[in-house]
Amino acid sequence: MRLLLALLVLAAAPPRARAASHWCYQIQLKPSNYTCLGPGEWEGSCQSNRQSPVNIVTAKTQLDPNLGRFSFSGYDRKHQWVVENNGHTVMVLLGDEVSIAGGGLSTRYRAKQLHLHWSRAMDQGSEHTFNGERFAMEMHIVHEKEKAPSSNVNEDDIAVLAFMVEAGSNNVNFQPLVEALSDIPRPNMNTTMKSSISLFHLLPEEESLRHYFRYLGSLTTPTCDEKVVWTVFQEPIQLHRDQILAFSQKLFYDHEQSMNMTDNVRPVQSLGQRQVFRSRAPGPLLSQPTLLAPALACLTVGFLR
After folding, report:
1. CATH architecture observed for domain 44-282
2. Is the CB of residue 251 less than 8 Å from the CB of residue 35?
Protein backbone atom coordinates (compact mmCIF):
# COMPACT_ATOMS: atom_id res chain seq x y z
CA MET A 1 0.00 0.00 0.00
CA ARG A 2 2.81 2.41 0.88
CA LEU A 3 4.51 1.64 -2.43
CA LEU A 4 1.28 2.34 -4.29
CA LEU A 5 0.89 5.70 -2.52
CA ALA A 6 4.46 6.63 -3.32
CA LEU A 7 3.92 5.84 -6.99
CA LEU A 8 0.75 7.92 -7.04
CA VAL A 9 2.56 10.91 -5.51
CA LEU A 10 5.38 10.61 -8.03
CA ALA A 11 2.95 10.38 -10.93
CA ALA A 12 1.10 13.48 -9.71
CA ALA A 13 4.27 15.57 -9.45
CA PRO A 14 5.03 17.91 -12.37
CA PRO A 15 7.76 16.52 -14.66
CA ARG A 16 10.13 19.35 -13.72
CA ALA A 17 9.73 18.63 -9.99
CA ARG A 18 10.96 15.08 -10.55
CA ALA A 19 14.07 16.34 -12.33
CA ALA A 20 17.19 17.76 -10.79
CA SER A 21 16.38 21.34 -9.83
CA HIS A 22 19.77 22.94 -10.38
CA TRP A 23 19.65 26.04 -12.53
CA CYS A 24 21.18 26.48 -15.96
CA TYR A 25 21.24 28.79 -18.95
CA GLN A 26 18.88 28.42 -21.89
CA ILE A 27 21.56 26.86 -24.08
CA GLN A 28 21.96 23.98 -21.60
CA LEU A 29 18.31 22.90 -21.53
CA LYS A 30 18.13 20.61 -24.56
CA PRO A 31 21.50 18.86 -24.09
CA SER A 32 20.60 18.23 -20.43
CA ASN A 33 17.34 16.54 -21.47
CA TYR A 34 15.59 19.26 -19.47
CA THR A 35 17.01 18.13 -16.14
CA CYS A 36 17.87 21.68 -15.10
CA LEU A 37 15.81 24.83 -14.63
CA GLY A 38 16.15 27.38 -17.42
CA PRO A 39 15.92 31.16 -16.92
CA GLY A 40 12.13 31.17 -17.17
CA GLU A 41 11.90 28.87 -14.15
CA TRP A 42 14.70 30.11 -11.96
CA GLU A 43 13.71 30.15 -8.31
CA GLY A 44 14.13 32.60 -5.42
CA SER A 45 13.41 36.20 -6.43
CA CYS A 46 14.11 35.55 -10.13
CA GLN A 47 10.50 36.12 -11.20
CA SER A 48 10.12 39.38 -9.24
CA ASN A 49 9.84 42.83 -10.80
CA ARG A 50 13.18 44.54 -10.02
CA GLN A 51 15.48 42.21 -11.88
CA SER A 52 18.69 42.50 -13.88
CA PRO A 53 20.05 42.79 -16.50
CA VAL A 54 18.17 45.54 -18.34
CA ASN A 55 18.32 47.37 -21.63
CA ILE A 56 19.75 50.84 -21.09
CA VAL A 57 18.13 53.34 -23.45
CA THR A 58 20.73 56.08 -23.24
CA ALA A 59 18.38 58.86 -24.39
CA LYS A 60 16.01 58.07 -21.50
CA THR A 61 18.64 58.10 -18.75
CA GLN A 62 18.51 60.93 -16.22
CA LEU A 63 21.52 62.97 -15.19
CA ASP A 64 22.38 62.59 -11.49
CA PRO A 65 24.87 65.23 -10.29
CA ASN A 66 25.78 63.01 -7.32
CA LEU A 67 27.30 60.35 -9.56
CA GLY A 68 30.88 61.55 -9.53
CA ARG A 69 34.23 59.81 -9.64
CA PHE A 70 34.98 56.55 -7.88
CA SER A 71 37.77 56.04 -5.38
CA PHE A 72 39.50 52.73 -6.12
CA SER A 73 41.56 51.19 -3.33
CA GLY A 74 43.83 48.24 -4.10
CA TYR A 75 42.89 48.21 -7.78
CA ASP A 76 46.51 49.02 -8.64
CA ARG A 77 48.04 46.14 -6.65
CA LYS A 78 49.34 43.22 -8.68
CA HIS A 79 48.37 39.69 -7.70
CA GLN A 80 48.54 36.19 -9.06
CA TRP A 81 44.81 35.73 -8.63
CA VAL A 82 43.08 32.37 -8.10
CA VAL A 83 40.81 31.54 -11.05
CA GLU A 84 37.92 29.06 -10.81
CA ASN A 85 35.46 27.32 -13.14
CA ASN A 86 32.29 27.19 -11.01
CA GLY A 87 30.16 25.43 -13.63
CA HIS A 88 28.45 28.64 -14.78
CA THR A 89 31.32 31.04 -15.48
CA VAL A 90 34.98 31.69 -14.79
CA MET A 91 35.50 33.50 -11.49
CA VAL A 92 38.56 35.40 -10.22
CA LEU A 93 38.74 35.41 -6.42
CA LEU A 94 39.84 38.84 -5.19
CA GLY A 95 40.63 38.17 -1.54
CA ASP A 96 39.88 41.03 0.84
CA GLU A 97 42.25 43.85 -0.11
CA VAL A 98 40.32 45.68 -2.84
CA SER A 99 37.52 48.20 -2.33
CA ILE A 100 35.63 51.11 -3.85
CA ALA A 101 33.94 54.24 -2.53
CA GLY A 102 32.50 57.39 -4.04
CA GLY A 103 30.61 57.17 -7.31
CA GLY A 104 27.37 58.04 -5.54
CA LEU A 105 27.62 54.97 -3.28
CA SER A 106 26.45 55.29 0.32
CA THR A 107 29.57 53.72 1.85
CA ARG A 108 32.68 51.69 1.05
CA TYR A 109 32.31 48.31 -0.66
CA ARG A 110 34.87 45.50 -0.62
CA ALA A 111 35.53 43.48 -3.78
CA LYS A 112 34.96 39.72 -3.54
CA GLN A 113 35.20 38.33 -7.05
CA LEU A 114 34.94 39.12 -10.72
CA HIS A 115 33.39 36.94 -13.40
CA LEU A 116 32.36 37.18 -17.02
CA HIS A 117 29.51 36.36 -19.39
CA TRP A 118 30.14 35.61 -23.07
CA SER A 119 29.11 34.07 -26.36
CA ARG A 120 30.80 32.74 -29.49
CA ALA A 121 28.98 35.51 -31.35
CA MET A 122 30.60 38.91 -31.03
CA ASP A 123 27.23 40.61 -30.45
CA GLN A 124 25.48 38.16 -28.11
CA GLY A 125 27.64 37.81 -24.99
CA SER A 126 26.73 40.73 -22.73
CA GLU A 127 23.86 40.66 -20.25
CA HIS A 128 23.10 44.38 -20.25
CA THR A 129 22.38 46.05 -23.56
CA PHE A 130 22.79 49.63 -24.75
CA ASN A 131 19.85 50.73 -26.91
CA GLY A 132 19.11 47.07 -27.64
CA GLU A 133 22.67 46.24 -28.72
CA ARG A 134 24.71 43.48 -27.06
CA PHE A 135 28.48 43.18 -26.82
CA ALA A 136 30.80 40.17 -27.09
CA MET A 137 31.22 39.81 -23.31
CA GLU A 138 30.43 41.48 -20.02
CA MET A 139 32.66 41.55 -16.94
CA HIS A 140 31.24 41.99 -13.42
CA ILE A 141 33.31 43.00 -10.39
CA VAL A 142 31.21 42.11 -7.35
CA HIS A 143 31.57 44.10 -4.11
CA GLU A 144 29.85 43.73 -0.75
CA LYS A 145 28.96 46.64 1.51
CA GLU A 146 31.20 47.11 4.53
CA LYS A 147 28.76 46.97 7.43
CA ALA A 148 27.88 45.12 10.60
CA PRO A 149 26.24 41.73 9.97
CA SER A 150 22.47 42.01 9.69
CA SER A 151 19.61 39.73 8.76
CA ASN A 152 17.95 42.56 6.83
CA VAL A 153 18.38 42.67 3.06
CA ASN A 154 18.88 46.15 1.65
CA GLU A 155 18.56 47.17 -1.97
CA ASP A 156 22.22 48.22 -2.07
CA ASP A 157 23.98 45.46 -0.09
CA ILE A 158 26.01 44.56 -3.20
CA ALA A 159 27.67 46.91 -5.70
CA VAL A 160 28.54 45.47 -9.10
CA LEU A 161 30.76 47.26 -11.60
CA ALA A 162 29.84 46.07 -15.10
CA PHE A 163 32.06 46.49 -18.15
CA MET A 164 31.16 45.68 -21.73
CA VAL A 165 33.78 43.85 -23.82
CA GLU A 166 34.06 44.23 -27.58
CA ALA A 167 36.25 42.64 -30.24
CA GLY A 168 39.25 44.79 -31.09
CA SER A 169 43.00 44.82 -30.59
CA ASN A 170 44.89 42.19 -28.63
CA ASN A 171 44.81 42.90 -24.89
CA VAL A 172 48.06 41.75 -23.29
CA ASN A 173 46.77 42.63 -19.82
CA PHE A 174 44.02 40.01 -20.11
CA GLN A 175 46.37 37.30 -21.34
CA PRO A 176 47.19 35.82 -17.87
CA LEU A 177 43.47 35.20 -17.35
CA VAL A 178 43.00 33.80 -20.87
CA GLU A 179 45.96 31.44 -20.40
CA ALA A 180 44.59 30.21 -17.06
CA LEU A 181 41.44 28.91 -18.79
CA SER A 182 43.30 25.88 -20.16
CA ASP A 183 43.92 24.67 -16.59
CA ILE A 184 40.26 24.78 -15.48
CA PRO A 185 38.15 23.21 -18.25
CA ARG A 186 35.73 21.40 -15.91
CA PRO A 187 33.46 22.63 -13.08
CA ASN A 188 34.99 23.02 -9.61
CA MET A 189 38.53 23.29 -10.95
CA ASN A 190 40.78 26.17 -9.97
CA THR A 191 44.26 27.42 -10.73
CA THR A 192 46.52 30.40 -10.05
CA MET A 193 47.51 32.89 -12.72
CA LYS A 194 51.09 32.46 -13.81
CA SER A 195 51.62 36.23 -14.01
CA SER A 196 50.68 39.03 -11.63
CA ILE A 197 48.13 41.59 -12.80
CA SER A 198 46.12 44.34 -11.14
CA LEU A 199 42.43 45.05 -11.62
CA PHE A 200 43.32 48.35 -13.27
CA HIS A 201 45.14 46.27 -15.91
CA LEU A 202 41.78 44.77 -16.90
CA LEU A 203 39.80 48.03 -17.09
CA PRO A 204 39.54 50.82 -19.65
CA GLU A 205 41.63 53.96 -19.11
CA GLU A 206 40.88 55.42 -15.67
CA GLU A 207 39.75 58.76 -17.12
CA SER A 208 36.90 57.03 -18.97
CA LEU A 209 35.57 55.56 -15.70
CA ARG A 210 33.81 58.88 -15.06
CA HIS A 211 31.12 57.87 -17.57
CA TYR A 212 28.64 55.30 -16.31
CA PHE A 213 25.00 54.40 -15.75
CA ARG A 214 23.37 53.56 -12.41
CA TYR A 215 20.22 51.70 -11.40
CA LEU A 216 18.93 49.37 -8.67
CA GLY A 217 18.45 45.73 -9.59
CA SER A 218 19.33 42.16 -8.76
CA LEU A 219 21.90 39.44 -9.11
CA THR A 220 21.67 37.92 -12.60
CA THR A 221 21.92 34.32 -11.32
CA PRO A 222 19.68 32.48 -8.85
CA THR A 223 18.47 33.36 -6.38
CA CYS A 224 18.41 36.77 -8.12
CA ASP A 225 18.30 38.72 -4.83
CA GLU A 226 17.14 42.29 -5.40
CA LYS A 227 19.96 43.93 -3.48
CA VAL A 228 22.34 45.23 -6.14
CA VAL A 229 23.30 48.78 -6.99
CA TRP A 230 24.52 48.48 -10.58
CA THR A 231 27.18 50.64 -12.22
CA VAL A 232 27.39 49.95 -15.95
CA PHE A 233 30.33 51.72 -17.56
CA GLN A 234 30.00 53.30 -20.96
CA GLU A 235 33.53 52.66 -22.28
CA PRO A 236 34.04 49.04 -23.40
CA ILE A 237 37.12 46.89 -22.83
CA GLN A 238 38.77 45.60 -25.99
CA LEU A 239 39.91 42.00 -26.42
CA HIS A 240 41.07 40.29 -29.57
CA ARG A 241 38.48 38.00 -31.14
CA ASP A 242 40.67 34.97 -30.36
CA GLN A 243 40.88 35.97 -26.70
CA ILE A 244 37.08 36.20 -26.53
CA LEU A 245 36.58 32.84 -28.26
CA ALA A 246 39.01 31.17 -25.84
CA PHE A 247 36.36 31.34 -23.10
CA SER A 248 33.88 29.32 -25.18
CA GLN A 249 36.54 26.92 -26.45
CA LYS A 250 38.44 26.08 -23.26
CA LEU A 251 35.71 25.99 -20.62
CA PHE A 252 32.91 23.41 -20.23
CA TYR A 253 29.65 23.28 -18.31
CA ASP A 254 30.04 19.59 -17.49
CA HIS A 255 32.66 17.22 -16.12
CA GLU A 256 32.55 15.10 -19.27
CA GLN A 257 33.55 18.16 -21.32
CA SER A 258 30.73 17.46 -23.74
CA MET A 259 29.25 20.96 -23.69
CA ASN A 260 31.29 24.11 -24.18
CA MET A 261 30.58 26.91 -21.73
CA THR A 262 29.10 29.67 -23.86
CA ASP A 263 26.03 31.92 -23.96
CA ASN A 264 26.00 32.10 -20.15
CA VAL A 265 23.77 35.14 -20.41
CA ARG A 266 20.50 35.87 -18.66
CA PRO A 267 17.82 37.44 -20.90
CA VAL A 268 17.12 41.15 -20.46
CA GLN A 269 14.50 41.85 -17.79
CA SER A 270 11.79 44.51 -17.73
CA LEU A 271 12.91 47.86 -16.35
CA GLY A 272 9.38 48.60 -15.18
CA GLN A 273 9.08 51.86 -13.27
CA ARG A 274 12.76 52.08 -12.46
CA GLN A 275 14.90 54.98 -13.65
CA VAL A 276 18.41 54.57 -15.05
CA PHE A 277 20.69 57.45 -14.12
CA ARG A 278 23.88 58.63 -15.78
CA SER A 279 26.94 60.13 -14.16
CA ARG A 280 27.71 63.81 -14.00
CA ALA A 281 28.72 65.16 -17.38
CA PRO A 282 32.25 66.58 -17.34
CA GLY A 283 32.70 70.26 -18.11
CA PRO A 284 34.25 71.20 -21.46
CA LEU A 285 38.02 71.44 -21.48
CA LEU A 286 39.18 74.91 -22.42
CA SER A 287 42.05 75.17 -24.84
CA GLN A 288 44.99 77.45 -24.14
CA PRO A 289 43.91 80.22 -26.58
CA THR A 290 40.45 80.35 -24.96
CA LEU A 291 41.99 80.70 -21.51
CA LEU A 292 44.42 83.39 -22.66
CA ALA A 293 41.88 85.51 -24.53
CA PRO A 294 40.19 87.12 -21.47
CA ALA A 295 43.55 87.81 -19.86
CA LEU A 296 44.92 89.43 -23.03
CA ALA A 297 41.78 91.53 -23.35
CA CYS A 298 42.19 92.83 -19.81
CA LEU A 299 45.84 93.63 -20.42
CA THR A 300 45.02 95.45 -23.63
CA VAL A 301 42.35 97.58 -21.94
CA GLY A 302 44.76 98.42 -19.13
CA PHE A 303 47.48 99.40 -21.58
CA LEU A 304 45.17 101.66 -23.60
CA ARG A 305 44.21 103.52 -20.46
Report:
1. Roll (3.10)
2. no
